[in-house]
Amino acid sequence: MSAIAAPAPDPNRGRRIAIALALAAIVVAVAIVVLPFVLLHRRYDRALAENLDLLDRYSRIASTRADVTKQLDAMRGRDPKRFFLRSGAAALSAAEAQEAVRALVESSGGRLITMQAPVSKDDGRYRQITANVQLTANIFALRKILHAVESNVPYLFVDNVTVRSQVPGNFRPGPGAEPEMFVQFDISGFALTGAP
């Protein structure tokens, strides 16, 4: 057997490894020192861009102040509180709503049967007052009643309308006569409670 000659060790190999390790250590040291500054600089750039965008938006909003002030003054001049029921106790608001409905029904040609006790529900600075109304009226009177409720001040809203005929299906009214119907609906209005 012959001996295989091993290659001669390279005397510069250790030196090259040492230089490579030194360069790697320098790169890691520079990265450890420089990387936080780069990331911090990027973070501040992003925050600065966001704040400049926010400033631009606020400046555009602030530039509309004169127009908004004019609109707000015009709205205050219209007295928007008149569209709400009286503030105060729920019973006071309910009495106003019931009296308005009673007057609307009687002036439109309907006949009020009953008005059940109102229910109130508070929601922030608003209180919703709801009462159940039952009446009899012909189709023309019902149309007048619903139109009067719709155009009433303070605003009232009609929900859950039920209309039932009180005559048999084969009934034929005379000319110009309309049969009366039983009508039931919930009427609701809103009052300001004064809470912010």
Output the keywords.
196 residues, elongated, alpha+beta, 4 helices, 5 strands, 2 domains, Alpha-Beta Plaits, single chain
Outline the structure in words.
The chain is α+β, with helices and mostly antiparallel strands and 196 residues long. It folds into two domains: 12-78; 82-168 and 178-192, Alpha-Beta Plaits. 48% of the residues lie in helices and 22% in strands. It has four helices and five strands; from the N terminus they run αααβββαββ. Strands 1, 2, 3, 4 and 5 form a five-stranded antiparallel beta sheet that branches. The longest helix has 51 residues, at 13-63. The N and C termini lie far apart (104 Å). The mean pLDDT is 86.
What is this structure, in a nutshell?
By secondary structure, this protein is an alpha+beta fold. It folds into two domains: 12-78; 82-168 and 178-192, Ribosomal protein S6/Translation elongation factor EF1B (Alpha-Beta Plaits). The protein has helices spanning 13-63, 65-77, 90-107, 139-150, and strands spanning 111-115, 119-123, 126-137, 157-165, 181-192.
Summarize the SSE layout with pairings.
Blueprint lengths: L12 H51 L1 H13 L12 H18 L3 E5 L3 E5 L2 E12 L1 H12 L6 E9 L15 E12 L4
Antiparallel strand pairs: 1-3, 2-3, 3-5, 4-5
Helix pairs in contact: 3-4
